[in-house]
Amino acid sequence: MKSTLPDVFCYLNGEYTPLAEAKISVMDRGFIFGDGIYEILPVYGRLLFRFESHMDRLERNLAKLRIESPLLRAEWLEIARKLISKVAAEDQAVYLQVTRGVAARNHVMPAHIQPTLFAYSSPAKPISAEDRHHGVSCITARDFRWERGDIKSTSLLGNVLARQISADQGAAETILLRDGFLTEASASNVWIVKEGALLGPPKSEHVLEGIRVELLKELCEEVGIGYKLRPISEADLFAADEVILSSASKEVLPVTKLDHEAVGHGALRGKPGPVYARLFEAYQRAKLLQSI
Fold it and tell me: Which of 16, 68, 87, 197 is least enclosed, having the fewest CB within 10 Å?
């Protein structure tokens, strides 16, 4: 059977090898328990975007899992750049993963074992011009995932189940609500626009602190858009002037249909809005200025 894996090289515990040939122990705690964290770093024109911010989050998440950071940032940067050099595409996505390592199966965190380090880069999958022009459809669902959404864990079964809800209905994302308030989507942060201001859920253990949370704050300041993190009710979401997704792969993306109903009001109902348009333009400028 032909492999469906991308034909790229990966880094695994100090060695570079074709991705299809990389192997780990079946007793790796990442395989057994999902006991690990990951990062996805966008690459534009062969340059890493917001590298320091991604490393900040990686180190925060390692600390939350009580895994000692296995490499210096300069070493991660060297690995990422070498992997980028092995891929022909100008725009890529670098995946980094650290698991606790290999040990006999036991829920208790074993001490003094060597973490498993894995990374690879592959061509980016850009959002289509049609989705940028028309916006995308999303479905809402109850946020049934675990309580530590702030940890970028490799244990993503809850997110997989959530994303499948929208996939089954031909929609782009599943927007999640917990106790009547917006948290995030299955693989994106979610924003609403009200009276010209960009609003997002506050930082909490239920929400992953996306790299674009701070970036969008900077972009709003740059172009004069109001910005605030505050609780967003289900009613706020459905009454929003605009709904926007953000993630490493989506950058910013307009939601123009929510639970099969058009988003927004008046002449702009069901269409990408002006705040999205200004943020998208500012994001493209940031890509040129904030990559290394």
Answer: 68
Pairing of strands 116-123, 9-12: antiparallel
Cα 94 to Cα 49: distance, rounded to the nearest angstrom: 10
**What local confidence, expressed as pLDDT, does residue 3 receive?**
63
Q: Which residues pair with 16 in a beta bridge?
A: 11
Q: What is the per-residue pLDDT for 241?
A: 98
Rg (CA), the chain: 20
pTM above 0.85, yes or no: yes
Which residues are CB-contacts of 258 (< 8 A; sequence separation ≥ 6)?
Answer: 137, 138, 139, 140, 175, 237, 238, 243
Separation of alpha carbons 170 and 273, rounded Å:
22
| Burial class for 291, CB neighbours closer than 10 Å (0-12, 13-18, 19+) | middle
Cα distance between the two ends of the chain: 39
Q: What is the dihedral of CA 170, 131, 282, 204, to 10 degrees?
A: 0
Specify whether the CB–CB gap between 132 and 251 falls below 8 A: no
DSSP state of 144: -
Token pair 């859920």: residue: 201
Q: Work out the pLDDT band at 2, boundaries 50, 70, 90.
A: low
Sign of CA dihedral 23, 28, 31, 37: negative
Write the CA distances from 231 to 61, 110, 173, integer angstroms. 24, 38, 21
Span 57-105, pLDDT tens digits: 999 999 999 999 999 999 999 999 999 999 999 999 999 999 999 999 9
Active-site choice (2, 152, 203, 287): 152
271 flagged as catalytic: no
